[in-house]
Design a protein that fits this description.
This protein is mainly α. It has 27 helices and two strands. The chain has a two-stranded antiparallel ribbon with strand order 1-2.
């Protein structure tokens, strides 16, 4: 009995070991065995968790603006004047979080596996990133206070310093943590120095801005705005330095600076990270729209009693549900277009990432657009209805035109960034361009049409947004039919002799059938003659 139990136990251990081995892909079995002795794990889950945090923090700053008390008896122009500081804070916070996310992408493009130190460092980075919206809100409320500027600058500085420390630690543990491409790179040390300078650009700008703010806060705010252009500013500074060095000394470029200008700034960003961050923003924006309905438009017990039934109480807010449907469909269609673009992109460079960030920032304003379209129906005060529609059109135009510019930027290097089917002579090129041009054209047309306010209303605008999926389906059907007709026309042009032969064969067949009918007639006559003779 004991021997049988020992055999069952050993069989169970063998089966469990076999299951463990089977769960590891064949290409990674060697890495899994090597990593298990060093307590290393893959970095994919950590990157996915980080992308979720970055997308949530980048979008959450729209909530204070969307929940701002907007008076229906006041001009929207005055309301936008009150919201302008918060809108600027939202955009700066979104771009600051996006810059931190870009630095995170650069760091983990060199890291293949993670240990406890990297995981804990990443948690500290995310903790500081989640504090960025608070620091920017504080800066927006108290712009002249040095403490508010200092807290904002210190948060950005800590993010850059922690990411730099993660790079330093990863290169110290290179054989265990770094990617195989980084390990085999002959210019590995230059790559490390370049990453240091890339990650420390924004902290340097923040420290300079804080020191200048001690003398003049307005100049400090101007320097903080340079955070939006930190990477292009560094690129042109490097180019100017190299030109001055050649002009004055005639020497060669510094190796590390030359490496930054020619490699790091041209290095591609993983499309998986871009899609994950973008999907997070789209998902959060699509979900935030329902918060106002859950907060303000669920009828109370008193409202149901006063109206007499729940149906009548819900019917009072039917315009809110219509605005919710149109806004959700708009966000979904924009995601659909973004998904179509990313499907045909092989890689994404820094300029494409910048256009994608601007597009996502304006898509994040969808909750505020929903609130305006649900409030100002049939409103004549200050022409608020027209202003609400035009605000929606501005958001749609900038978000969609940036998606178009993202694809046009990729077409500058079609052999490296775009799938061949979406290139200049690809089968999907014309359809993808048409799909990207739908929202820019329609939003610009509606914006101009709003100047004739008697021709368009909130109801019509919402119904037009709800009908947009049908327009995209019609566009798909049109291109499908056009492609089939083009294929038939191309086949006729390529094989005219075959069509001529077919026509000749058909005429020959008709002649043969005529001959056969004549023969049958002759046979009938012969049979009649033979009957007469008989």
């Amino acid at each position: 009995m004991a021997s049988n139990s020992d055999e069952h136990a050993s069989d169970h251990e063998v089966d469990s070991e076999a299951d463990d081995i089977e769960t590891v892909p064949p290409d990674n079995i060697q890495f899994a065995r090597q990593d298990s002795s060093h307590s290393l794990t893959g970095s994919s889950r950590l990157q996915a968790y980080s992308d979720a945090i970055f997308s949530i923090i980048a979008t959450v700053m729209i909530l204070p603006i969307a929940h701002h008390e907007i008076s229906e008896h006041k001009s929207l122009y005055d309301t936008f004047g009150e919201l302008l500081p918060q809108l600027v804070v939202y955009l700066m916070s979104f771009f600051a979080v996006s810059a931190a996310w870009a630095g995170h992408v650069w760091v983990f493009q060199t890291i293949a596996r993670t240990d406890d130190v990297i995981v804990l460092l990443n948690l500290f980075i995310l903790m500081v990133v989640t504090f960025l919206p608070f620091s920017f809100t504080l800066l927006g409320l108290f712009p002249t206070y040095i403490l508010a500027i200092g807290i904002c600058c210190l948060c950005i500085t800590f993010v850059g310093v922690l990411q730099t420390f993660a790079v330093w630690y990863a290169f110290r543990q290179e054989d265990r943590i770094l990617t195989q491409e980084t390990i085999s790179d002959p210019e590995k040390n230059k790559r490390k120095s370049a990453l240091y300078q890339v990650l420390l650009t924004n902290p340097i700008i923040c420290i300079v801005a804080l020191l200048v703010a001690l003398i003049d806060s307005s100049v400090g705010h101007f320097l903080l705005l340079l955070l939006l252009f930190g990477q292009p500013l560094r690129k042109y500074t490097i180019a100017l330095y190299n030109k001055c060095k050649h002009a004055c000394c005639g020497g060669a470029n510094l190796p590390n600076i030359q490496y930054i200008s020619n490699k790091i700034l041209e290095e591609k960003i993983s499309m998986e990270r871009v899609e994950a961050f973008s999907d997070g923003v789209f998902a959060i924006v699509a979900t935030l729209i329902i918060l106002d309905i859950c907060e303000d438009n669920i009828p109370s017990q008193e409202a149901v009693k006063s109206e007499g039934s729940l149906e009548k109480a819900l019917g009072k807010d039917w315009t809110v549900y219509l605005a919710y449907t149109s806004t959700f469909i708009t966000v979904g269609i924009l995601w659909f277009v973004h998904h179509s673009v990313c499907h045909f992109l092989v890689e994404c460079n820094r300029l494409m990432t910048a256009f994608n960030t601007v597009s996502l920032a304006f898509i994040g304003g969808a909750p505020l657009a929903f609130k305006l379209t649900s409030m100002f129906e049939d409103s004549d005060y200050g022409n608020n209805e027209r202003i609400a529609i035009q605000f929606n059109c501005v958001i749609l135009f900038i978000a969609s035109i940036c998606q178009l510019m993202m694809f046009i930027t990729a077409l500058r290097k079609p052999h490296h960034l775009v799938h061949p089917s979406a290139g200049y002579h690809g089968s999907e090129h014309a359809y993808l361009i048409a799909k990207l041009c739908v929202y820019p054209v329609i939003s610009l047309f509606i914006y101009c049409l709003c100047f004739r306010s008697d021709l368009l209303s909130i109801y019509a605008f919402n119904l037009m947004q709800i009908g947009m999926p049908a327009l995209f389906l019609f566009l798909r059907l049109t291109f499908y039919v056009g492609r089939k007709l083009h294929q038939i026309g191309s086949f006729k042009r390529m094989c005219p002799s075959r069509w001529l032969c077919n026509s000749n064969r058909s005429s020959c067949s008709s002649n043969r059938s005529a001959c056969c009918s004549n023969r049958s007639a002759c046979s009938t006559n012969r049979s009649a003659c033979s009957n007469t003779r008989t």
